[in-house]
Design brief:
Radius of gyration: 29 Å
Largest sheet: 7 strands, mixed
Structural class: alpha/beta
Number of helices: 28
Number of strands: 21
Strand content: 5-15%
C-alpha cells in the first residue's frame, strides 16, 4: 500500500559576499531555481520558512543570517514532517588542507573560517533533526563537493544514522564554479524535463544530465539512505508521459506493477498493462509457491484490473457525455474536504479518465486499505455530472466486476446525493441599499433553491453601523434556516454582497452570536455594485463570461495577475491598462490596500476575482505558491483556512504534522488565511442579471421598510413552487 508522500519545503539561500568579485547572475539564478522548485507542476515544494518565503538573498545577508535562516527552515520542516530541499548558491572556499566547504556571507573573507558558514555541519544538523524524513542539498559554489558530511556524522548523531540525504553539487573539491552555470542549467532541466527519465527527476538522474551540459565543471552527487523508502526527488518530470503502454493504465499502475513483479524470483517482465497480461501473470503466479512477494504481485494485478475495467466502463457508459470539465468537476468535488495535495488538480499532468483512475487506484492514502471508497465515489460523481441515474443496473454491474462491495457502492451513491442536497439551497444577503457606500439601514436577503429565488425578505440594521449589520445578517440566517427546515434541505452556503468600502475591512464570516457565521456556512464575498451597476460597469459586464472561461481553463497555478504598489499608484495609468484589456484574469494585490476602497472598486469593475491581503505585511511573491498549489479548491480553501485559524487544535495539527493528512497539505493554511477575496463567479453574475430583470421595490436605492422581517415566502413565490 502506498503511503502519502511527505510534504516538501524549499529554501534557496544566495548571499552576496562583499569581499569577493560580484556575481552578476546570482539573484537571477537563485530566483529561477526557487520558482522551479515551488512550481506546483514541477518541484511542488512549499516555501521553506514559516513566514511564507523561501528565497533568501542580498548584499546584507551575513553568515550568521544564513545560518539562522537554514536553522529556522529546518525546524519548520521538522514540525511539518517535510523533506527539506536546501539550495546554497554563491562564493565558497575550503580552508587550507581541510575538506569542509565554507559558504561566504556578506561579511566573509576568503580563507578565514570566522564569519563563514560551515556547510557540512549545516547539512548534518538538518538531516539529523527528528521529524525530517530527508534532506536534498543543491550546492553551487567553488569547491562545492566539500559540502559532503563526514561518514561519522552520517552514521551517528541523534538518529543513529536513520536519516536520508541526497546532494547535487556543481563542482568538485578542487574546481571553481563559473557564472552560476550549474544552478541555471538545473533550473532549466527542472522546467523542461528529461525524456525517458521516468516520472520523477532524482538527483542521480539530474547529475547524469547536467554532467553532460555544464562545461568546465564536474557535477557530482552523493546519496545516503539510512531509512530505505521511496527515492528523494527534486521535481516531477514534465516530459513524462502520463499514459501507460496499453493506454488504459496510467503511470502509477506501470510503476507499481514493475516494482511488484520485479521483486519476484525470477522476476516477471512488464510487457503490457492490459487484461490479457493480467491473466497471463496470474497463471504464472499459480505455478509458483506462495510467498510475500507473490501476494504483493497479486495485489498489484488486482488493482491493475480494477483500473482497466473502470476506464473501459467510463468510456462505454459515459463516453458521449464525458469532458475534461466533468472529469475535473468530479475530482474537485471528491477532494473538496481533503487536506492532502491533488497533483492532477494542481496541474501535474493532464486530467484524463486514465490519469484520474490511475491516481485513485494506485496513489490512495494508507487510511484507505484499497482505495475503493474514493474510486467508487468518483465514478458516482462522474455519472451524476453526466446526468446518469445512480440506481442504474450498469453502475452495479461495474461494481460487481471490480469486486466492490454493494455497501461501498450504496455509501458512495448516498454520499453523492447528500452533496447534491447540500448545494441546492443558498442564502444571499446584500448591503447594496446604502446610498453612499457606508453601512445601510436595511439588508436584503434572498433564499435560493437550485439557483432560483424562493423567498425574499428585508432586515433592519439598527444604528446603521457594523453591529447593526451583523445583527441583521444573523437574523437573515435564522430566517433562511427556518425555511430550509420546511424544504427539508440543508443550508450551507451564504453569499454576502457589500460595497467596496465595507468589503475592505469587514469580515462577515467572523460575525455571529453563538457560532461564527463562517463556522455555520461557506461564505462568499461579492461586490454589491453589480446589483445596481452604472452605465460604465454595464458596458464591461459582457467580457466577464470570457474572463471566467480563461480562469476556469487554467490547469497550472493560479490565474491571477498580481499587482504591486508601483502598478497601482498611478491611478490614471492603471485605468488605461484596464481599458486596454490588461489583467484579463483574476487580479491580486501584493500589498494591503489600507483605506483605499476606490482602488478595490476600480479593479472590481474589470475582474470577477479580486484578492488582497488582510494583513499589513501583505502577500509578497514568496507566498504565492500556497495559492498556486490550492487554486483548484478556491474559494472553498479560504473557508477552511479561516476555520483552521480559529480552531487552535486544527492549526496545531497543521503546524506540527500530528494529523497525517496535513503533512502533505496542498497549501499553507496560515498563509491563505491572510487573504481576502471577492469571488463574483458565474452564479453570482447570473443572480445579478436576474435581479435586475425582475423589478421589485428593493431594486432601487430608496430605504425599504422592515415590515416583512422574518417573513415567509411571498404568495408569488409560493405559486411558483406549486407550479414546479
Amino acid at each position: 500500500m502506498k503511503r502519502p508522500a511527505p510534504a516538501r519545503h524549499a529554501l534557496v539561500v544566495a548571499p552576496h559576499c562583499t569581499s569577493m568579485p560580484p556575481l552578476a547572475r546570482l539573484a537571477g539564478a537563485a530566483t529561477a531555481l526557487y520558482e522551479a522548485l515551488t512550481d506546483p507542476a514541477v518541484g511542488g515544494c512549499a516555501p521553506g520558512l514559516p513566514s511564507g518565503s523561501g528565497l533568501v538573498h542580498g548584499t546584507e545577508l551575513t553568515s550568521a543570517a544564513v545560518t539562522a535562516a537554514v536553522q529556522e527552515a529546518t525546524a519548520h520542516a521538522a514540525r511539518r514532517g517535510a523533506v527539506l530541499v536546501l539550495a546554497l548558491l554563491g562564493h565558497g572556499f575550503v580552508p587550507g588542507s581541510a575538506t569542509g566547504l565554507r559558504l561566504m556571507g556578506a561579511d566573509s573573507v576568503e580563507d578565514i573560517r570566522l564569519c563563514s558558514v560551515n556547510v557540512p555541519e549545516l547539512l548534518t544538523d538538518a538531516l539529523d533533526h527528528p521529524g525530517i524524513p530527508g534532506v536534498l542539498g543543491i550546492v553551487d559554489t567553488c569547491h562545492a563537493a566539500g559540502a559532503l558530511p563526514t561518514a561519522a556524522d552520517l552514521t551517528a548523531g541523534t538518529r543513529h544514522g536513520h536519516s536520508r540525504i541526497s546532494l547535487l553539487m556543481g563542482a568538485s573539491l578542487t574546481e571553481a564554479a563559473v557564472d552560476l552555470a550549474f544552478s541555471r542549467a538545473l533550473a532549466d532541466a527542472l522546467r523542461t524535463g528529461i525524456p525517458g527519465a521516468g516520472r520523477l527527476l532524482t538527483p542521480r538522474r539530474l547529475r547524469d544530465q547536467l554532467g553532460a551540459t555544464v562545461i568546465g565543471q564536474s557535477v557530482t552527487g552523493f546519496d545516503y539512505d539510512g531509512t530505505p523508502s521511496d527515492p528523494l526527488w527534486l521535481a516531477r518530470n514534465v516530459r513524462h508521459d502520463d499514459a501507460g503502454p496499453a493506454g488504459l493504465a496510467g503511470r502509477h499502475a506501470h510503476d507499481v506493477l514493475a516494482e511488484a513483479l520485479g521483486a519476484l524470483t525470477p522476476p516477471i517482465p512488464v510487457t503490457g498493462t492490459d487484461l490479457p497480461f493480467v491473466h497471463a501473470c496470474r497463471a504464472e503466479l499459480g505455478t509458483r509457491p506462495p510467498s510475500v512477494t507473490g501476494q504483493q504481485a497479486e495485489s498489484a494485478l488486482d488493482r491493475l484490473e480494477t483500473a482497466v475495467r473502470t476506464v473501459t466502463f467510463i468510456r462505454d457508459w459515459l463516453g458521449a457525455d464525458v469532458t475534461t470539465s466533468t472529469l475535473r468537476y468530479a475530482l474537485r468535488t471528491l477532494f473538496a474536504d481533503e487536506r492532502r495535495p491533488q497533483p492532477l488538480l494542481a496541474g501535474a499532468g493532464a486530467v484524463t479518465d486514465v490519469a484520474t483512475v490511475d491516481e485513485l487506484t494506485f496513489n490512495h492514502p494508507t487510511a484507505q486499505p484499497d482505495g475503493t471508497r474514493d474510486l467508487t465515489r468518483y465514478v458516482a460523481l462522474l455519472a451524476h455530472a453526466c446526468g446518469k441515474d445512480l440506481a442504474s443496473a450498469e453502475l452495479r454491474t461495474w461494481a460487481r466486476e471490480v469486486r466492490i462491495a454493494p455497501t461501498v457502492l450504496n455509501d458512495a451513491v448516498d454520499h453523492v446525493r447528500d452533496l447534491v442536497c447540500r448545494h441546492r439551497l443558498s442564502l444571499v444577503v446584500s448591503l447594496h441599499s446604502s446610498l453612499v457606500g457606508d453601512w445601510p439601514e436595511v439588508l436584503d436577503a434572498w433564499l435560493l433553491r437550485d439557483g432560483s429565488t424562493v423567498a425574499q425578505a428585508q432586515f433592519p440594521s439598527d444604528g446603521a453601523d457594523r453591529d447593526g449589520a451583523e445583527a441583521a445578517l444573523e437574523a437573515a440566517a435564522l430566517w433562511a434556516q427556518d425555511l430550509a427546515r420546511q424544504y427539508a434541505l440543508p443550508l450551507k452556503r451564504l453569499d454576502v454582497a457589500a460595497p467596496g468600502s465595507l468589503l475592505l475591512d469587514w469580515r462577515p464570516e467572523a460575525a455571529g452570536i453563538g457560532l461564527r457565521i463562517g463556522v455555520r456556512f461557506d461564505v462568499r464575498l461579492h461586490w454589491s455594485d453589480r446589483l445596481t451597476p452604472d452605465a460604465v460597469l454595464r458596458s464591461i459586464e459582457g467580457t466577464f463570461t470570457e474572463r471566467w472561461e480563461t480562469i476556469s481553463r487554467c490547469d497550472t497555478g493560479a490565474p491571477v495577475d498580481w499587482l504591486a504598489h508601483d502598478d497601482v499608484h498611478d491611478r490614471q495609468g492603471l485605468r488605461g491598462r484596464l481599458r486596454n484589456g490588461r489583467y484579463a484574469r483574476g487580479i491580486g494585490l501584493v500589498h494591503h490596500p489600507g483605506s483605499d476602497s476606490a482602488l478595490l472598486e476600480t479593479l472590481l469593475a474589470y475582474t470577477p476575482v479580486l484578492l488582497w491581503p488582510g494583513v499589513p505585511a501583505g502577500f509578497p511573491k514568496e507566498r504565492h505558491a500556497c495559492l498556486d498549489a490550492g487554486w483548484w479548491a478556491m474559494p472553498g480553501a479560504l473557508d477552511r483556512a479561516y476555520r483552521g485559524r480559529w480552531d487552535e487544535s486544527s492549526a496545531r495539527a497543521v503546524v506540527d504534522g500530528s494529523d497525517p493528512g496535513c503533512a502533505a497539505t496542498f497549501a499553507d493554511l496560515d498563509a491563505l488565511a491572510d487573504l481576502r477575496a471577492v469571488w463574483d463567479d458565474e452564479e453570482w453574475l447570473r443572480f445579478c442579471w436576474n435581479y435586475r430583470s425582475v423589478p421589485t421595490a428593493s431594486n432601487h436605492r430608496s430605504v425599504p421598510t422592515a415590515s416583512n422581517h422574518r417573513s415567509a415566502p411571498t404568495a408569488r413565490t409560493t405559486d411558483e413552487e406549486s407550479a414546479r
